[in-house]
Design brief:
This protein is an all-alpha fold and 134 residues long. It is built from four helices and no strands. Helix 1 runs antiparallel to helix 3.
Length: 134
């Protein structure tokens, strides 16, 4: 039902665009005839087939839009995560452990770069942080 409604909606959209583009604008005769106010504000005369067809397509477009909205809002609660087994993860797996002998990182300390090359296993301790002097 949903797929058929989408197909009808798309075909209606394409036909409605075509029907609107084929019609002549209402203000086309305003520039040519300034004195004919009855043509602008009066009765439009008999309604053409293209006008009736456009009205029918507009009504069908509104009905299919409302129907699609209703069907989508009343669909079952489908979730992307449905069927995924949730397991508890140990804290060690979330935060990596520090290598042996590595200093703990404290907030606000920045290690200094030394000019002498150091061995890859050797780490320089962080510089002591001085507080504001008064």
């Amino acid at each position: 039902m949903y797929t058929i409604l989408i197909i009808i909606h798309i075909v209606t959209c394409i036909l409605l665009i075509g029907a609107v583009l084929l019609q002549k604008g209402k203000g086309a005769e305003v520039g040519a005839v300034f004195g004919a106010s009855e043509a602008i504000f009066g009765s439009t005369g008999p309604v053409s087939f293209l006008n009736k067809f456009t009205t029918g397509l507009a009504i069908l477009f509104m009905v299919t839009s409302l129907s699609l909205t209703y069907l989508l809002s009343h669909r079952g609660s489908e979730s992307v995560m449905e069927g995924v087994k949730v397991e508890s993860v140990p804290a060690e797996a979330v935060t990596p452990a520090l290598p042996a002998g590595a200093p703990e990182k404290t907030q606000g300390t920045v290690p200094e770069k030394s000019s002498a090359p150091s061995a890859p296993d050797e780490q320089t301790p962080p510089a002591p942080q001085e507080g504001p002097s008064k």
